[in-house]
Structure formats: structure tokens, C-alpha cells
Amino acid sequence: MAKLGLGLYKSLLNSKNFDFAHQAGATHLVVQLVDYIKGGDNPSLSQNYLKGWGVTKNEGKLWQYDDLIRLKKEIESHGLTWEAIENFDPAHWYDILLDGPKRDRQMDDLKYMVANIGKAGIPILGYYFSIAGVWGWNSRPSGRGHAMTVGFDQEVIDSDLPIQNGMVWNMTYDEKAPSGTIPPISRTEMWERLTWFLNQILPVAEENGVKMVAHPDDPPLPELRQSARLFYSISEYEKLLTLSDSPSNGFEFCMGTLQEMPEGDVLQTLDKYSASGKIGYIHFRNVKGKVPNYREVFVDEGDLDMAAAIRILKKNNYQGILIPDHSPAMSCDAPWHAGMAYALGYMKALIDTV
Ligand SMILES: [Mn+2]
Question: Residue 166's domain is classified under what CATH number?
């Protein structure tokens, strides 16, 4: 049966949070190693309209085998299993996304890191192949009980706003980049870049026992900030599998993002791919509405029938993990932790009773 996991940002990787995860019923962790803006607040439209998720200074600082093993032992000493890493740092692959001059060298770096991940026994790497990245959310106390929650309202943002030089994936990788903006990018070009990336990385992933799983575009718009987005609809997302039949090619199945898409049936899609073993892990979150207007909500109150999702996973004997992904923040001294504990408890009860 499906297993329960928690995603932890780099700033949260400590023994207190490993114990927290275990206490809330999680057995597995998904670890993010990107240095996002410090603090508990989600970067949002009102707070960080142009600066995005912050500045990464990790160029040249690759994920080394010894560091991965050290963290893995610490995680395991708390009774947990390290299931996946989520997201490359933009500093490691900006010219792969942008087709820039450092592309080939950065590809060598990614291959080196994927091999390290495999040798360290971490079976899954989630990635998000996007130029604009997660951008354009707003954050307001619009959740149940005035919970702070993120959402998207296309009419209040300038979705054609170009991206400044030195930025990609909603982070700054070069603070000294000349002023100006990056050129528009077509869908054809984006598919070519993804195809090149997968052709390069998948053989290395396969050889090292790592599954590469792709997150859909959040928010799921066909274009954002003058760059085409690949996975803005369920049918486009499914095209990922046409690029390679490698067992290392699969989905980081974000139920929330897929539900935000204007067409398609998330549960049907979950059924199809959980049966065929193409789902690395699941972002088990709920949402109300669809593009151009949606809000993230508590796991029990959205448009998706989460119990039905668990029944599907049970029927298909899905053995992977579910993580909450996001939750509205709860009004207390630990808003993020309370939101996660609430989601994990609900998820564990569903898994235990279905
Ligand atoms: Mn997600």
C-alpha cells in the first residue's frame, strides 16, 4: 500500500523536524536541497513579485556522495527512509533550461550528481523543467478559518512580464547579469530542450537506479512570462512518456497542479499511471477552482475526492509514497508544522481505513 512521506525544505533539515515527521506518521522523506528565501512565508505576488524565490549561490557546489550519505544516516537514525530529492538547484542547470553556453558542462554536473544519488541509495529525483517556474501566486488569509493560503488569479498579474537576465525557475542565479530580459521561448524549443535533457540524463539515471520524475507546471498556463510551458494540461503531461520508455522516466504526480488544469480527470489519470508503475511519488494535495482562478485548500475540503484517490492506489497496489506538498498555514506558533501535521494525520487515516 501507499506509504506516507513528508517533504522538507533545506532549511528544515534537522533532527527536530525528522522527529516531527516520524511523530506525524511519516515513514519516508522527500528532501529539497535548494536555498529558497529564508523564513516560513511562501514567496508570493505581494512579497516577492520580481525577486522570486531568492538568490542561489550554489553554482559549483554539487551534491557530493559523502554529504548525501551523512544526511541519509541522520535521517535513518530517526527511523525514516530517504525516498527522494525534489528539484535541482537552478544554479546547477540554468543553461540547460536556457540553452546557454554552459549547457554541456552543467549536464556533466547533473550526471555526476545523479550518479551520486544512486550510489547513496536514494531511488527518486523529482525535477521541474520550467523557465518561469512557480510564479504569480498570491497569498491571503482566504482559507477555511482565515488560514493563509496561496492561490492564483490571472487577472491580477501581468502574465506577459518578461524575465530579467540572470533569473530562471523564479530564482536569481547571477546577480551581476547585464540589465535586460531573456528572449521569448516557444513550445517547440522547450520540447527540444527537454528531449535533449532526458536523452542525456536517463541513461545515467537508469544505470544508477534513479527514477527521474517530472512535476507539472504550476500554475498550469500554456505560456507564462513569454516562455512556453510544457505540462499545462493532462494530455500534454502524458506526452512526457512518448520521449522515452526508460523505466527511469516518470511522473512526480502533483494532484493539486493537475486539478488546477482546465481539462481532464485527475483520478482517471492517477488510475492509469499508478497501475503502470510510472508514478515516482505523489503530491497529495487539494485545491478549489482551476486556472485562471484557484486556491490551495486543506486536504479535506477541495474539489478532489481524496478518499477515492486512496482507493485507486490500493486497487493498483501502488507502493510509492504520498506527501502533503503544500498546506494552508494554521493560526498558531508553528503555522507550517500544524498544516503539515493536519494533512499527514488525515492522509494516514485514509491509508489505514481504505
Ligand atoms: Mn506539487
Answer: 3.20.20.150
Q: Do residues 342 and 26 touch, judged by C-beta distance below 8 A?
A: no
Judged on CB neighbours under 10 Å (0-12, 13-18, 19+), 289 is middle
Q: Which residue has the cell 527537454?
A: 194
Q: How far is CA 85 from CA 21, 131, 143, 303, in A?
A: 16, 20, 29, 28
| Cα 151 from Cα 159, distance rounded (Å) | 15
Yes or no: say if 10 and 53 are a contact pair by the CB < 8 Å rule: no
C-alpha grid cell for residue 129?
Answer: 523543467
- What is the distance in A from the centroid of ligand 1 to the CA of 158? 23
Q: For 212-238, how does the pLDDT look when each residue is reduced to its tens digit (9 = 90+)?
A: 999 999 999 999 999 999 999 999 999
* pTM passes above 0.85: yes
First-to-final CA distance of the chain: 10
Q: How many Å lie between the centroid of ligand 1 and the Cα of residue 336?
A: 16
218 C-alpha to ligand 1 centroid (Å): 8
CA of 326 to the centre of ligand 1 (A): 7
Using DSSP, state whether 297 is helix, strand or coil. Answer: strand
For 192-203, b where at least 16 C-beta lie within 10 A, e where not — what string? ebbeebbebbbe
Cis ω for the linkage preceding 219 (within 30 of 0): yes
19 C-alpha vs ligand 1 centroid, how far in Å?
A: 23
Q: How far is the CA of 294 from the centre of ligand 1 (A)?
A: 14
Ligand 1 centre to CA of 178 (Å) is: 33
151 close to 140: Cβ distance less than 8 angstroms: yes
The pocket of ion ligand 1, defined by CB under 5 A, consists of: 254, 283, 325
The domain tally of the chain equals: 1
Asked if residues 45 and 139 have their Cβ atoms less than 8 Å apart, the reply is yes
Encode pLDDT of 113-148 as tens digits: 999 999 999 999 999 999 999 999 888 899 999 999
- Structural domain span for residue 27: 3-353
